[in-house]
Every structure is written in structure tokens, then in C-alpha cells.
Amino acid sequence: MKKPLLLLFVLILIQSSLYAQSSVKVESKGSGKPIIFLPGFATPGEVWNTTVQNLPNFQSHVVTYAGFGGVSPVEMPWYGKLKSDLITYIEDQNLENITLVGHSMGGNLALDLAAYFSDKIQKVVIVDALACMREVMMPGVPAEALTYQSPYNDQLIAMDEAARGAYLDQMTQNMMTRPEDQAQVKSWMSMADRKTFVFGYVDLLKLDSRPLLPSIQAPVLIMVAGQPFGPGAMETMKNQYSTLPHTTFAFAAESRHYLMLDQPEWFNQQLSSFISQ
């Protein structure tokens, strides 16, 4: 009886493994061509669970960032460490023919990796990610004007739980439709390390991925959520990615920002079709 149990344990270890660098945790499982799943800001890799289940013939590599999903925080600056440790992960694992799937900030990381590994990246899927969020949210504000220490950030750091809960309620209601999804994402965000949540967002606002775009040769699918901005959302995305050479856009008119939660059937169909071409 012991040998079959031991064999089962070994098979489980083979099928699923955990890798941890200082700023990222990566859970890998399955076999086939690799797909790296990069979640958005403050969201753990669990957000991809349903998506991964829908792709059983691929090897999934699901990332969670430092400060989120129970992963220990790291010192700021933060985003550059994520990028560096993901590059190390791909090199350590000898991954080839990679598909990158990145939601929101994960889309920026996907662009960084696609530009760095031009010979390893087969396809890229950008899920409602702006190439430069600052240009849309804070037009005319230069990156160097944004600092960790500011009255607004001090207020966010000092929030009590009631105020923080109300803040996260408003945030999640804007980003997904179903109350159960709002509650789940709020729970994940509530678990986040407070300084990573506040200062990491400064790192995100400083990003401008547009200079990388002309160098990315892999085909890229950009999924765009239509709510709450309507057709203007697609226009904004096309402007942001105008210098990306091989681009296909897919528009989900009724979805909010978390496309994989709001429109899972549409999302999975678009993703499966693109990566199987």
C-alpha cells in the first residue's frame, strides 16, 4: 500500500511545483507549451484559476507578486524587482515558446518580458492593460513628479480598517460586475501589504511601456473592457499601442476591467483561439 501512495505523491510533485524568488512566487503545473500568467496589481495568481483549468494541454506558470497573496514584501522600488526575478525565472526554467498572459499591470510585465526575450516569446495576451496608465489618468504629469512620500499616500497608509474597507468597496465595484467577484477581489486586496499596495502603485503610475513596443515581434492580442468607458476605451487602447507591430484587438462591450471574471466564457474563447492559431 505504501508504494502506490509514494508514487502518487511523486506524481503530484511532478505535476505541480512552487518556485520563489525574492519578489515573485510561481506555481507551475501541467505539461505542454508554457503559459506564464501575470495578474494585475494587488491580485494574487489565484485570479487565473478558472483560466488555467480551461487550458489543460499547456504548462501553466502562475505568478504572485511580493506583498500580495501572502508573499512577503520587498523593499521599494518594487516593479523593477518583479521584472528582474521573472527574467531569472524564465532563464532558470529554460522556458521556450512561451505565451505571456498579463492582466492590467501584468500586461506591462508581459511587454517587458516580450521585449527582453524576443527569441523565447511566442505570443502575448494583454488583458485591459494600458501601456502608460499615467498618460490617461494624469495627463501631463511627468514620472519624476510622482514620489512615495506624499500627503495622499500618507493618508492611505494611515487608513483605519473601516475607511480602507470603504475605499476597496469603491475600487472593486468599478472594476467588476458581480458582487461575489467584488467580495473576492476585495478580500485579496485587504490581505495586501499596506506599503506595497500604496508605494507599488506609484511604481505602476511611473511606467511607460510605449518605448518597448516597436521591438516586440511576437503576435499580441489586446483584450479591451468596454465598461464603464464604452467605445472610447478601444480608441484609447489603439492610441496607446499604435507602434506595436503585430496586434489584434478584441472588445468586450459589457465587461469591466477584470475580464476573466466578468466575461469568463468570452475571455476563455478569445484566449484559446489566439494561442491555438
UniProtKB/TrEMBL annotation:
Domain AB hydrolase-1: 35-269
InterPro entries the record matches: AB_hydrolase_1, AB_hydrolase_fold, AB_hydrolase_sf
Signal peptide range in chain numbering: 1-20
Keywords, sorted A to Z: Hydrolase, Signal
Molecular-function GO terms, alphabetical: hydrolase activity
SUPFAM superfamilies membership: alpha/beta-Hydrolases
Protein name: Alpha/beta hydrolase
Organism whose genome encodes this protein: Algoriphagus taiwanensis
